[in-house]
Amino acid sequence: MLDGGDGVPGTEIATLTADATPYVMAAVSAYGGAVLAKTRDKAADATVSVGVRFLQRVFGHKKDGDPIPHELAVLAATPEDPDALGAVCRAIHAAMSADEAMLGEVRSILDTAPGPPVIQNVHAGGDAYAAARDMTIYQSPGQ
After folding, report:
1. 115 vs 84: CA distance, rounded Å
2. Tell me, what's the pLDDT at 2?
3. Contacts of residue 138, Cβ cutoff 8 Å, sequence gap at least 6
4. Against a cut of 0.90, is the pTM above it?
5. What is the DSSP letter of 34?
């Protein structure tokens, strides 16, 4: 177990798991349960590609139709469920804790990654409105 004294602190594994979460979610959102069967797709978004490579390294490559780990199947079915994401993160943490070679490969995958995606939700109300790309906010005179 890497988590217990052979030089790799549990906090590093936790940090790598947290750093991988946006990529994992992007890949699962794009491919669902087929995420472990995907090959490198040149048309795929770089963020999705990192997530696919990461998940395939942790959980292994699968063929279309092969069963995937239960935690990943639940996340693919309910990507908005924070408990499902937590279960996948715990499985990732456990896998990296048990395999020092995997830990190094995961570091390498994340080092080649673009910055994580930025997701913003904007809700306009009252005297304001939101534009699709840039935001302009107007205030009524006298306020």
Report:
1. 24
2. 45
3. 127, 128, 129
4. no
5. G
